[in-house]
Amino acid sequence: MTTPVSSVGSSVPTLASALKGYETQVSTTASNIANVESTGYKAFRANAVSMAPGMRVAVQPTGQEVDTTSQLVDLTTASESYQAAAAALGSISRTEKRSLDLIG
Question: For residue 53, what are the domain limits?
Fold first, then answer.
């Protein structure tokens, strides 16, 4: 029988891969923004792919100029998603600690 603690803990690998994926998305987008005025620079896109457990991110060239508006949207989305995944990990950690405290 699965206990609540073990089912909560099984989310950790998924959230850890999400954090890494969102970090890659933020890094890719930041690089695009930093290079927006570099002659000949073409944007890259970090595409998330769902996999068990969690997600993977493939960074690929778009062949297009950097669109700063879409880059800022991508940066905001990835940053907020990263924060949400980090908060979920923190919640799991607190839940596990409380459960262990109750068990004694």
Answer: 8-103
